[in-house]
Amino acid sequence: MSELSLSQVSTGYGRIQILHDIDLRVGDGEIVTIVGANGAGKTTLLRVISGLIGIWGGTVTFKGRSLSRSSVEARAGLGLVQIPEGRQLFGSMTVEENLELGAYCRRRDGRPFLEKRDEVFTLFPRLGERRRQQAGTLSGGEQQMLAIGRALMAEPEMLLLDEPSMGLAPLLVKEIFTTLRELNSRGLGMLLVEQDARIALKLADRGMVMERGRVVLEDKASALLDNPEVQAIYFGQHGGGGGSRTENE
Amino acid sequence: GETTTTTTAAETTTTMPAETTTTEMAGPSGDPIVIGAIVSATGPASPLGEPERAALVMLEAEINKVGILGRPIKIVIEDDQSNPTEAVTAVNKLIQQDKVVAILGSSISASTLAIKPITEAAGMPLMALAASNKITEAPIDWTWRAPPRDALAVGAALGYIQNTMKLTKIAVLHDENAYGASGAADVAARAADFGLEIVATESYKTEDTDITAQLTKIKGASPDVVVVWGTNPGPAIAAKNMKQLGMTQPFVGSHGIANKSFIDLAGDAGEGVIFPAGRLLVPESFTNPAQKAIVDQFVAAFTAATGNPPPTFAGHAFGGLTLVLEAINRAGSTEAADIQKALNETKGVITPDGVYNYSPTDHDGLTPDDLTVVMIQGGTWVLAPQ
Amino acid sequence: MALLRVENVTKRFGGLEALKDVSFSLHDGQVKALIGPNGAGKTTLFNLISGIDRPTSGHVFFRDEDLGRLAPHMASRLGVGRTFQHSKVFDDMSVLDNVKVGRYGRSHAGVFSAFLTLPRHRREEKAISEASLRALRRVGLGDRAHESAGNLPVGDRHLLEIARSLASEPTVLLLDEPAAGLNNEETAQLAEIVRRVRDDGVTILLVEHDMGFVMDISDEVVVLDYGKKIAEGPPLMIRNDEEVIKAYLGEDL
Amino acid sequence: MAALVFLRRHLAFLAFSVVILSAPLFTGNIYYLSILAFMATRLMIALGLNLLMGQAGQISLGHAAFVGIGAYGSAIMTTRWNMDPWLAMLFSAVFAAAVAGLIGVPTLKLKGHYLAMATLGFGEIVHILLVQFKWLTNGTDGIGGIPSLAIGGIDFGDPQMFHWLVWGVVLLMLRISLNLVDSRVGRSLRALHRAEVAAMSLGVNTSFRKVQVLMVSAVFASIAGSFFVHYVQYVSPVSFTLTFSVILVTTVVIGGLGNVWGAVWGSVLMVLLPEYLKRYNQDYTLLVFGVMLIVIMIFLPGGLVSFKTLVAKTRERLGGARTASAAGPGPARGS
Amino acid sequence: MTFDQFLQYVFSGVTTGSIYALTALGFTLIYNATNVINFAQGEFVMLGGLTAVSLHEAGAPLALAFVGAVAIVATVGVVFQLLAIRPLHSAGILAQIIVTVGASLALRTGAMLIWGREALPLPPFTGDEPIKVSEATILPQTLWVLGLTLVIVVTLQLFYRRTLTGKAVRACSVNQGAARLMGISYSKVVLLSFGMSAAISAAGGVMITPVSFMVYSSGALIGLKGFAAAIFGGLGNPAGAVFGGLALGILETLAIGALPMSGASGYKDAVAFLILLIVLFVKPQGLFGGRSVEKA
Ligand SMILES: Nc1ncnc2c1ncn2[C@@H]1O[C@H](COP(=O)(O)OP(=O)(O)OP(=O)(O)O)[C@@H](O)[C@H]1O
Ligand SMILES: Nc1ncnc2c1ncn2[C@@H]1O[C@H](COP(=O)(O)OP(=O)(O)OP(=O)(O)O)[C@@H](O)[C@H]1O
Ligand SMILES: [Mg+2]
Ligand SMILES: [Mg+2]
After folding, report:
1. Are residues A219 and A201 in the same domain?
2. Nearest CA among C57, C50, C2, C8 for reference residue C26
3. Do A94 and A74 share a structural domain?
């Protein structure tokens, strides 16, 4: 089954260790969210899972097999698909070509491209309007939509999302999380890294809090939502003004 | 020219070792006499430099069977990669590191001109192996030349056009490299002396793949004859391109195509091509029996060593070495001043390129008679019809 | 008089009109927010104001200068600083060197005095270092000055860009989504920094999707939708504006 | 105390200066000195190119032409017009700078490697003109009889004197390169290389700076060309081709970009290695040289200056491997 | 210039132009996948020609020599990539470019050692009886080169624009990391590109040898012109490369005809490069280059 698990994973850049003995499990169809301060190592963790950086110690397994010998591209082929921080679109290629490349690892065994593409366009009509525009010239939000759309084209079995709400208008954030919920209800598992802890925890089954490369708290999402400590740091009201960008929900 | 003195002089030289092998009792001994050589064994001019090097390597072994002044010789060969800067480093090395007594080289005029100031300043005898006229313009205290200079070859070619072919309108097609440019400049300067009119001058780069455009322009100028000055493969491409364009004018080349490669490349298109060359190419043309003997020996030795008959350039190297060693032998010394004096007194020394008579003012030593004009016929060289 | 005036600005990319006849102005000491759905033209407008792109028609005036007529680097010299939505820190330069570049327009040494390292040049270098460190401390990055900027996490990169811009002593600072990627605690710290900067007399124009942050910090809000200005006013008014809710904030208010 | 600080900051530079300037005291061998002289001119070019490539991130594929302008400028002005060599050197450098400006202004305001393309074409054109303008350049025969440099009574035709002169100039260029990198201008160049738009928005007049550094590097190259011809006293067009430009770029990259010392190590390697290889079999020289370039790049992709990091990394990798194997399965694949 | 002459100049230009075009295509292929300028590209052309000469001398019929040479050089390209370029995948483009400089020196010298210093010929594919068009003539071999060039470029264009693999290649050049996250094997894409690039250049080399012979040093000039042609057409675009190659070839030859003075041919390359510069200054993306835009 599409279960992702990490045990005792540690890694870093150069000589500096960033992740320390991370244990993590995302079950089939489960959503796990990770919250943590800037620089806590969340992105690094996702990079390790995708194979973009090597690990110093520990194991990563997906669907019961060890990934230690799998290349980045092989992991994508297994259905472990990441939406990276900063989108990483193919800037000089069109929206449509980006989507097509999203389906690259399913070119042999996937559903028909057009069918999937139209689904994405239904999900994000804005992309449909801009299908021949170069991805690099899309606005920040449009790019984020495309990044999500592109990942969906790969028919992922486990989605790794790095701050999908970044740069999106509130309205769109809501839409995207609705979409994620919908995808999850079809059985798609997710590992979600998100700054907007409130909306992320509302979506997730379980949550983890990372600090300086270590998991310091792990619980049911609902429990974390009610955890006063988490509330204080991750959805604390600042300056007496507004709150989270989704406070109105 | 041939005079009676030539034969005598040739007999006294020890340049062709085989002649004297039997007269020496044992091999040479003592410190070797070190001769330096700078050739363009790699780079664009390697078709010139490589046979020169092969000849020198072969000759070193041959000569050491007898030696000079009872001593063996050692030839230190440097490759200037067809680049004057490299030649400068090489000449410094030869003088400073290897302590050579004389230097042969370089294969190309540019390198030779680059090293000449150094050898002149150092008082080092330099036997040039390149053709540019400038090499033997003053100062020439320490510079001599073995191959026929451009002017000789140009004179032979133009003379043939004027006297034998009796044509007047010529077109010049030349390689843009030093060899082609220098020859073309000489043609331009002297055409009028031969009553010739240049109706077009075009050039190509050594590596150009097609010359039909230049030839189209030449064709438009309706010359009587096309003079092509360059080394392979350009002239061969030109010959084929002329055939393609249906140009029926005679093709007069330079001594730069005096090798088998041109015949192989040009194939049918090469038939009837005429060019000036040393007599080495058509050994039966040697009227001087002494020269013929020397050439036959050289051809045999070179062919045995490399598997190919010697191209003209190998002959230049042989000639240059012969001239230097003969002078050393005559001087009985390896002191620069003695070699200088001996070289200036060189009389009737025979090489495949001709018979040399140097004087303090003439450091070329050859006369127009030393060149002949040959034609390609049936895939080989024959003397051009007179 | 307004410090910055956007007058009837239109910007076209091929067939697409990213901005349509937009006008508004920014007054001294203000914090003004520019909001709107993705693709509304906010970043495009920033590019016009900071001089790196030119309007198709209309003008952007800074004091009396028409920024559309000046070379791109002149906006900064006049006092317009900015940060970027997709962070553009100078990777593999140190954090401090990043900020020092911000002092560029406020220092003078040219090639020759650099060649010769004249005493004047040395004094200036010292002043640059000091000013840059001050700017770094203002955003709380003082202790990371000698790290390589490429290693900073996303949030700190925004702060670094702010510090870098502050080093150029801007009169107007344009912030493009500075809170993106920050959690709430960090966003609150950022708000604190922005407020301090404003208190030091810098006028601020910011783009941000975090409504809490926007409502909290800004004096006035301009709303763009599909390149058109659809509303302008104080936060409370914008928050309740029907059109803004429909286009941007969401119905379920 | 202050002296000590000064010494530490400039240790590398001082050590290098002492070593190189004392070389003629140990050898009067003209061959060795000529190699050092070629190294000096190569280093002058490399220093300029290193500023352009390492700091501003722009590539020139026509630097041979700037060297050619200096070389031919000096050769023509001194032999044909009997001009003072120093003045000729100056005029050539000014001319090179002007040409660099002309090429730089239209290409450097564009993003991308347009400069590389334009300089490629420019380099070829210069080469062709050197060959074709026979009335001026003597064509492929080249120009000989170029006078050696002299000041007052000192004749720099003497190899040892020339050594001190040319290396003195190199050290000066090295010093000012080091100074430049560590200055406002140097920082702005590095910044615009990494994110041009951001640099602009911080007030950096990026096109101006890029053109300026191109001009500086053209001047360095031109001066190198001038010294070269006064040393060799002969010049021909064969040296000023694309191949040479590519070798120059290689010199800078293999030494290490973005670090002024990279130019030094690159020049040392690129001059000495072929000279050394030649001793064995000259036919194989370029084959072995080419393969060695590849090998060096593979092991030191950051150039020779990254040698120290390589050593550190290897040591660490050995250490790291130990911990990894102790921790269980080998390190995961990744880049 | 009469019309016949004009026609002849164009034919000449096409002959050299198509070889530039094929070389430019080779550049384009590698550039598209890696952003690397392969300075050994001309060497692939040279190796193609010389290998075919050897195969033919060894008794292989021309067609077999052609296929064999292309296969052998493609293998050289692949091996070169595996040994020298692959270790530098993460080290940046400049390091890879320098490696290609090293390779060009090594390959050229290696070829000299194997095939010697003299140019070698190869018989034409289908006779060398020139075909007459009006008063101008063109060799059948030239038509072969031109035909093959066109077939290759159309195929390539379809490959890049229409096939998923082609798009994957482009994706790798835009963003290597992202491409890998999509499941595209960067290593395979690059390997494929080097193989194809070497094969195409080698094919060009085999076909031009009957016209212009081949010698170990031929690669340098062809490489330079091919690179210029690739830029001319907007680096990265196959159709542009072919257009650039033909345009450069024809410009060179027309320059000979158009310049009135005698000796004009010395300036032909200068004219071609000057036009190239003007194009760069006026339309910097090259004639066919796509707009490259980057978001602020
Ligand atoms: N390429 C890199 N080289 C060296 N250090 C890095 C690199 N990338 C990230 N780091 C460091 O690793 C740590 C963790 O970074 P990471 O990007 O994983 O954090 P994050 O939790 O995703 O933060 P953010 O919320 O800002 O995205 C940070 O301290 C950062 O400075
Ligand atoms: N260079 C360009 N070429 C073509 N279209 C462009 C270009 N730059 C921007 N656009 C388009 O202009 C519109 C406005 O873009 P802009 O980046 O200004 O939006 P934004 O308001 O900043 O959005 P976001 O909040 O998502 O960042 C978008 O639809 C975008 O696709
Ligand atoms: Mg992150
Ligand atoms: Mg934006």
Report:
1. yes
2. C2
3. no
The letter for the amino acid at E181 is L
> Do residues A160 and A47 both lie within one domain?
yes
pLDDT recorded at residue E275: 83
Output the CA–CA distances (angstroms, integers) from residue C22 to A151, B201, C9, C82, C227, in the order listed.
36, 67, 5, 20, 8
What's the sign of the alpha-carbon dihedral E254, E255, E256, E259? Answer: positive
Q: Are residues A108 and A229 in the same domain?
A: no
Ligand 1 interacting residues, C-beta cut-off 6 A: A 13, 18, 36, 38-44, 85; C 151-155, 181
Domain with A175, as residue range(s), is: 1-79+156-242
Q: Are A210 and A34 in contact (CB under 8 A)?
A: yes
Contacts of residue A175, defined as CB under 8 A and 6 or more positions apart, other chains included, come to none
Average pLDDT over residues C22-39: 91
pLDDT in the model for residue E77:
95
Domain boundaries C4-249, corresponding CATH code: 3.40.50.300
pLDDT on residue E204: 93
Res. D302: pLDDT tops 80: yes
Residues A53 and A99 in one domain: no
**Closest of C9, C35, C6, C65 to residue C244, by C-alpha:** C35
**Residues whose CB falls within 8 Å of the CB of residue B163, separated by 6 or more in sequence, listed in order:** none
Residue E74 pLDDT > 90: yes
Render B46-66 in DSSP notation, one character per residue: HHHHHHHHHHHHHHHHHHTTT
| Distance between first and last Cα of chain A | 34
- Same domain? For A67 and A161 the reply is yes
pLDDT in tens, E221-280: 899 889 888 888 877 788 888 999 999 999 888 888 888 777 778 888 888 888 878 887
Which of A150, A5, A145, A25 has the alpha carbon at shortest distance from A76? A150
Same domain, A119 and A170: no
Model pTM score:
0.86
Separation of alpha carbons B157 and B160, rounded Å: 5
Q: Please, which residues bridge with residue A34 across strands?
A: A193, A208
Q: How many domains does chain A have?
A: 2
Substitution target in A10, A15, A60 with the highest count of D β-carbons within 10 Å is: A15
- Residue A173 included in any domain: yes
Q: What is the pLDDT of residue A158?
A: 92
Chain A contacts of D330, Cβ < 8 Å? 68
Nearest alpha carbon to residue C163 among C119, C114, C123, C196: C196
What are the residue ranges spanned by the domains of chain C? Answer: 4-249
Strands (E), B234-289: 251-252, 274-278
Both A237 and A160 in a single domain? Answer: yes
Considering chain A, what is the average pLDDT of its residues? 85
Residue A215 lies in a domain: yes
Those residues whose C-beta lies under 8 Å from the C-beta of residue C133, and which sit 6 or more positions away, are: C96, C99, C142, C145
Token digits for B331?
């001087």
Interchain pair D216, C72: CB under 8 A: no
pLDDT in tens, A92-144: 899 999 999 999 988 877 788 888 899 899 888 889 998 899 898 888 778 88
Of E106, E228, E294, the CB nearest to D290: E106
pLDDT tens-digit readout, B243-278: 989 999 999 999 888 888 899 899 889 999 999 988
The tokens for C18 are 């990213």
| A66 beta partners | A61
User: Which ipTM value was assigned to this complex?
Assistant: 0.85
Question: Which of A107, A136, A154 is the last residue in one of the domains?
Answer: A154
Q: Which of A99, A119, A154 is the last residue of a domain?
A: A154
Nearest ligand by distance to the CA of C224: 2
- Express each pLDDT in C69-97 by its tens digit: 888 888 989 999 999 988 889 988 999 99
* CB within 8 Å: A67 and D323: no
A45 close contact with D: CB closer than 8 A: no
Q: Give the tens place of pLDDT for each residue, D187-201.
A: 999 999 888 889 999
Q: How far apart are CA E134 and CA B253, in angstroms?
A: 30
